[in-house]
Amino acid sequence: MKSPVKSCSGPVSRRDFLGMGACALGGLSFADMLRLQSTARAADTSSDNDHAVILLWLPGGAPHMEMYDMKPDAPAEFRGDFQPIRTNVPGIDVGEYLPMHAKHADKFAIIRSIAHNFSDHGGGHKRFLTGRDPFQPTGFVNDHPMVGSIVAKCREHRSAGLPNYVAGMDNGRQGVDVFSFGAAYLGQTSTPFMVPGNPEEPKFGVKNLSMPIGFEAKLEDRRALRRSFDTVRRDIDATGAMQAMDAFEQKAVDLMMSDRARDAFDLSKEPLQVRERYGWHRYGQRALLARRLVESGCSFVTMVLENPTPPGGTMPTDVTYNWDSHAVNCHIFTDTKFRLQYYDRAVTALIEDVYARGLDKKVMVIVTGEFGRTPRITYSNGRPGRDHWPQAMSLIVAGGGIKTGQIIGSTTSKGEQPKDRRLSPNDLWATMYKHLGIDPELCFPDHSGRPMPILPHGEVIKELYG
Questions:
Q1: What is the pLDDT of residues 17-31, one digit of tens each?
Q2: Residue 217 exposed, middle or buried by CB count within 10 Å (0-12, 13-18, 19+)
Q3: Pick from 432, 456, 454: which is nearest to 445 by CA?
Q4: Which among 214, 337, 256 is positioned nearest to 29, based on CA atoms?
Q5: What are the Cα distances from residue 246, in Å, to 38, 158, 187, 218?
Q6: Ordered domains of the chain (ranges, CATH)
Q7: Residue 291: left (phi > 0), alpha (psi -120 to 50), or beta?
Q8: Following DSSP, what letter does each residue of 220-233 receive, concatenated?
Q9: What angle in degrees, to the nearest 10, is found between the helix axes of 425-436 and 121-130?
Q10: What does the buried/exposed string (b/e) look like for 309-348 if buried means 16 or more CB atoms within 10 Å of the residue's CB?
């Protein structure tokens, strides 16, 4: 007897995550983040480099053969329903539901030949985002730091008036172990400042960025009161923890009072036509928020693009929450067609702005998920889908001073494996670290005290600088 078909939930579901309890939340307030910060400092290997990265993360695994690696001559059970369209760069085609990509193909590079060996969402997240094979092929708790945490650690000396590392996602998804955003042995102070919620909604706001009413007037009284009731004398505090706490609290207060931080997160300061160009939905407004954050000095911004449904809208039939387009979850062509209308607008608006605003040397944009989808279409209840496929995937890179308007690598005729220029996620991160001026051989001690290089292997993708 066959077991019942179960849908693949992709990264930890909203319900499962909420059930973990508040103690599992990885997002820290400014004050919490600063109080927990260790007095030990990593060397800032990029002190003269103000470059930044925006990572648009597509959890579940985007279908490469519907987007960036079309195979119109493959058998029907591989090529699917969509057709390729020409772009503004001769020789580069994209899927027909990416018309705005077609107009801006000269501003990004497509990489078609990245591959790894972890087909579970958890293992795929950990492998891709840390640059290391995980100890366990399932689960989302990192053994090694996510690349954004490494950037945050390397730049912890910097103070731009807002966090160095920010991540945005849907409400209920703001835990470091939902998408393997954990900092592992680097500690909680290297996790991202979480910004959950839908930036399109009028009531969207960021906690811990506003000074409570009357707080400024009472601040000095509060400090004086605390000093008078301290039971541990600071002059005998050999660890320096009390002094450190005072410094962290002061910095947190400074951040709350910072116009720079409040302005960076305030999308209402953008002209309406700009917000409309990005799109009035989660994908578009998160992409716009990412641009504002890096312009204001944030080093690393991750925006998670899952459900694009606008506020008040409902998810159509045969569409799933994230990019996990199994036949048991959705009809892949219905789902992809629905999703790409939002994705196409958000991604191209961001890339267009990076170049139009003179950020194309400073800001590198990376758009990817943890793996691709199976080249051969599968079916459930007569509905088509594609399953997990780390053996081949596509992603795009823009900005960062790279050479755009090109395709790097290729896959076999059915999209199953890299045909030439096989690359790994580590090659992508080596390229990113080059952009940020961070030495990939830099080491941090793990929990046992062993020095761990931030990237065990990987080479800069030379074609991006050719």
A1: 344 333 334 444 444
A2: exposed
A3: 454
A4: 256
A5: 13, 18, 20, 17
A6: 14-211+257-465 (3.40.720.10)
A7: alpha
A8: HHHHHHHHHH-SS-
A9: 40
A10: bbeeeeeeeebbbbbbbbbbbbbbbbbbbbbbbbbbbbbb
pTM given for the model: 0.86
Contact 339, 82 (CB under 8 A): no
Confidence of residue 44 (pLDDT cuts 50, 70, 90): very low
| Residue 390 structure tokens | 């780390």
Alpha-carbon distances of 188 from 75, 162, 184, 192, 288, rounded to whole Å? 49, 17, 8, 9, 27
DSSP codes of every residue in 165-182: EEEEE-TT---TTTTT--
Token pair of 319 as six digits: 């569409």
pLDDT of residue 262: 85
Token reading at 413: 């005729």
Candidates 357, 439, 370; CA nearest to 398 is 357
Give how far Cα 395 sits from Cα of 110, 122, 224, 368, 466, Å: 6, 19, 54, 5, 19
Contact at 8 Å (CB) between 342 and 200? no
- Kindly state the greatest CA–CA separation across the chain: 78
Query: Buried b / exposed e across 8-23, counting CB within 10 Å, b at 16+?
Result: bbbbbebeebbeeeee
What is the tens place of the pLDDT at every residue in 352-387?
A: 999 999 999 999 999 999 999 999 999 999 999 999
CB 192 within 8 A of CB 152: yes
pLDDT digits (tens, 9 = 90+) for 250-304: 545 555 556 788 899 999 999 999 999 999 999 999 999 999 999 999 999 999 9
DSSP SS3 for 394:
strand
Structure tokens at 225: 């009161």
Please report the pLDDT score of residue 463 as a whole number. Answer: 98
Using an 8 Å Cβ cutoff, are 391 and 113 in contact? no
List the Cα angle 390/82/463 in 5-degree steps: 50
How far is Cα 240 from Cα 296, in angstroms, rounded to an integer? 32
What's at 291, amino acid-wise? R
Tracing tokens 């892949």 back to the chain, one arrives at 332
Per-residue tokens: 109: 């590079």
Instruction: List the one residue out of 392, 285, 345, 385 whose CA is nearest residue 8.
Output: 385
If you count DSSP H runs as helices and E runs as strands, how many of each does the chain have, helices first?
Answer: 14, 18
Distance CA 350, CA 278 (A): 7
CA nearest neighbour of 48 among 399, 454, 437, 359: 437
Q: Is 274 helix (H, G, I), strand (E, B) or coil?
A: helix
DSSP letter assigned to residue 317: T
